[in-house]
Amino acid sequence: MKIAEIRGLTPDQLAETLINLKKEQFNLRFQAATGQVEKTHRVNEIRKDIARIKTVLRAKAAA
After folding, report:
1. What is the pLDDT of residues 14-34, one digit of tens each?
2. Which domains does the chain have, with CATH numbers?
3. How far apart are the C-alpha atoms of 2 and 28, rounded to whole Å?
4. Distance between CA 53 and CA 9 in Å, rounded?
5. Does the predicted TM-score (pTM) go above 0.85?
6. Among the residues of 1-63, which ranges form H helices?
7. How far apart are CA 31 and CA 17, in angstroms?
8. 50 in Cβ contact with 15 (< 8 Å)
9. Contact predicate 17/50, CB 8 Å
10. How far apart are CA 2 and CA 7, in angstroms?
């Protein structure tokens, strides 16, 4: 996700997206542990998307 897309979402949508990304991250961790992960770059993408969403949520809460 791009930061511009994330900033356009409401806090409720951001929270929902965050939950979905954390679920996907959990599943990828299990796949990596068993050696079944196909897209290894996706792990880093999800981690960075989670950080972006948390940053925007914190900025919106402060405003």
Report:
1. 999 999 999 999 999 999 999
2. 3-62 (1.10.287.310)
3. 21
4. 10
5. yes
6. 3-7, 11-34, 41-62
7. 21
8. no
9. no
10. 9
What amino acid is encoded at 32 in this protein? A
Tokens at 42, concatenated: 């996706």
Q: Decide if 37 contacts 31 (C-beta within 8 A).
A: yes
Structural tokens at position 18: 């965050």
Reported as a single tens digit per residue, the pLDDT across 36-59 is 989 999 999 999 999 999 999 999
Q: Please give the Cα distance from 1 to 4 (Å, whole number).
A: 8
Query: Which is nearest to 42 in space by CA: 34, 16, 61, 50?
Result: 50
